TrEMBL record:
Any Pfam family matching the protein: DEAD
Lineage summary: Archaea, Methanobacteriati, Methanobacteriota, Stenosarchaea group, Halobacteria
Residue stretches making up the Helicase ATP-binding domain: 39-215
Organism: Halorhabdus tiamatea SARL4B
PROSITE patterns: DEAH_ATP_HELICASE, HELICASE_ATP_BIND_1, HELICASE_CTER
Domain Helicase C-terminal: 256-407
Keywords from the named record: ATP-binding, DNA damage, DNA repair, DNA-binding, Helicase, Hydrolase, Isomerase, Nucleotide-binding
The protein's Enzyme Commission number: 3.6.4.13
UniProt record similarity statement: Belongs to the Lhr helicase family. Lhr-Core subfamily.
Identification of the protein by name: ATP-dependent DNA helicase
The keyword Aminoacyl-tRNA synthetase belongs to this UniProt entry's keyword annotation: no
An annotated Gene Ontology molecular function: catalytic activity, acting on DNA
Biological processes per GO annotation: DNA repair
Amino acid sequence: MSEATRKGDAVFSHLGDAVRSALSDRGFTTPTEPQRRAIPPIADGTDALVIAPTGSGKTETAMLPVFDAIEGNPPDGIAALYVTPLRALNRDMRDRLEWWGETLDLEIDVRHGDTTQYRRQQQAENPPDVLVTTPETLQAILTGEKLREGLADVAHVVVDEVHELAAAKRGAQLTVGLERLRELAGPFQRIGLSATVGDPAEVGRFLTGDRGCSIVEIDAGSDIEIDVVRPSIEERDENVAGEIVTDAEVASHVRKIDELIDTHESTLVFVNTRQTAEALGSRLKEYGTDVGIHHGSLASDARVEVEDAFKDGDLDALLCTSSMELGIDVGRVDHVVQYNSPRQVSRLLQRVGRAGHRRDRTSAGTIVTTSPDETFEALAIARMARAGEVEPAAIHHGSRDTVANQIAGVVMDLGEADARRAYEIVTRAYPFGDISEAVFREIVRELADNRVVWLEEDADELSKRRGTWQYFYHNLSMIPDEATYDVADGTSGRQVGTLDERFVVNFAAPGEVFIQGGEMWRITEIDEDDETVHVTPVGDPAGEVPSWTGQEIPVPYDVAQEVAEIREIAADQLRAGGDPESVARHLAGRYDADEATIRSALEQIEYHEGPVPGPNRIVVEFEGRDVVLNAAFGHMVNETLGRLLSALLGQRTGSSVGLDVDPYRISLEVPRNVTAGDVVDVLKSTDPAHVKGLIELSLKNADALKFRLAQVATKFGALKNWRGRGSNRFGRDRLLEALEGTPIYDEALRELIHEKLDIGRTSELLREIQSGEVALETVGGRTAIGRGGRSGSKELLAPENADASVIQTLKERIQADRVILFCVHCEAYKTTKPVKRVRDQPQCPECGSTRIAALNPWDEETVTAVKADEKDDEQERRTKRAHQAADLVQSHGKQAIIALAGRGVGPTNAARIINKLRENEDDFYRDILAREREYARTRSFWE
């Protein structure tokens, strides 16, 4: 007997005869590593968390002992639940489960939102032995009268992709759902399956309600190979069509990706935004590469079509976003390309883990980088991935709208419930163990006030009322209920695709440009009633600036710190006399990149003058009104620290402070009377204990909070059928005012902070600055590292240097754009007209004044603000901006109006453009274009 067979027999001996016989029929002789280590404790009935790479047999690891436990003597009801975050179960996985069911005479069925009414009725009348479902559908079936009877027999629950759920509200909701199931079925075995987890013990507590579990972890990093490559730039590149691509750098990226696709049989190409997927797909098709595009904005049938085409070998590659990170079945993949830094270790492991899903294959991938920042970042992430240093899951502890949702669920389960019992059920779930009775009572009262449940105050009794059923089934999911807008081509009438409501609310306006389906489109009209965005194709893509950018994936603190460490080591060696080639060789010995790639990144350090920012050194540089803190603490800390500085400096000066953040820099645009010394003073004098309060105060007027507030209010039943754009009709400001001080406001604030900020680490950083553990140095002028900017911002269809066609297109667009002309002197004159029809020196026909503000056509609120007798802070800000615009128009006439018509330019930047005193008209427009690109690149979620 071979050693492999002996080990297989030893592991599989924990299973009964029927399952072992089926294993033999299936050709299983040797267990995979997860099966070898996890089957014994699972077969013994122990709760378990199995962490192993995709394709290593995790499903069978969990289900073989479950099948064995129920085979031969299944209960009348449902014996096991298999919970997956994917509504459409991986087809390969479903085939495998159904094979086991047929072989062992067990019925396996699937239940999700698209299951037919007929099939649901069959499941209620005759429950399957194993039910595969989603977290949301579990919420629904827990309240169904007949299915509750079937669920009473559940003895095993398997939760797939538990890492994905642990970091989401739908996962927090699931943990309470499992406690509600426990009320019905009694204790049951819990098995979690995960690809990558940074803190297994914490995820184990999430899974089991902190009741302990066996953790089986297979090191994903030991079986991956990752190369980091920054392509070299050639002078020019001629594509298949014979057209010369003017942006040589972007051409080199596309050429390298095409080369990687060509040298492998089956390649997944991951990108970080849908826009990049569309743009890169368009470029690769010009090279003659047969690629499919896969992202969340595409219709589900379009996604399935490209999945099948890729699986059948009809495509050379599949271009995808995070839509392909989970276990969607696309067959064998032999290589993964990541374009731009993956920004997180977990993402890299999940993505590269899709390649080489065979026991004799290592998962292989290539990261294609575009700048020094990105190269250093990719080097750090690749090393951390190989070492298994994964980010912890950001569990949503204490989310109040989830508690509200689950209080209604408990009432639906029981008809009526003592508030104490509801509290005990909810707080048994790990994310809610710290919810106090006082907070719970506030949430209950809010639900009662919103007519979601009936509260008998004297008896502390909760019961159903007429609105309970409707509320609960409208809020089965904790994913915000956002509308999807159809994108319709106004020329042909065909549907181009769809857009998320969040983007339409916060971005879309007539004239804006975006990419979809590999083509560029300009918005002509937004029909809110029909939820349709009407567009026209952009005739000359090379002459346009896409103004739509996606939300950045945050780079974690530890990654940014290692980037700073690499820079510091390289700088020390260079300044000690080492030549760049030897430093590159040294770093190539530790990191996964060729010397040429590392050498190209070192140029940033070679040209840097002054102290180099490091893991424990912040370098503050300043020039004019620009102050940059070179601070390598990742997105969330830098966002928190940047907002703190912006708020406190603004408070000191009474002026607004511009803010832009990336993982390595905090860029401030300050009033002229603010110096770098003022910034240092704020860092050294701000009490770390006050950070939380100051940040909460700074968020109060953020549009992001108001948008989130409406979503959370819907989850509390305070708003019915909310739609983001429609909320403007009653005013988000009034909504904020009405809900401040309620659990709804507290939750909206908590969620924003949880997703975007790191208050704890920022407070600690301030303490370290003030104690001297983190050095603070200042330099006059800008440095090479300080000018480095965000590495992943360049989009493929936005050439860096504007040629004549770009400038001509920009001129035509601005001249055709409409502006509101409003007299700030008499406040009686207002008109809207195209820029080309505005006089060289506009004058008010009512009072003769030349103080005419030029405003965007959708900025009626500013006109209202100027006319208001009593103004709030936002109205004061708008009024100040209108007067600044009027001052510019009075001094510079139509030149100012043209500058102000630029996308996201505003009075401050318009003044800077005008003050350059450009004699050449094209250079003047180039300055406007540069500001538009900067605005498109840095437009942040906080806007």
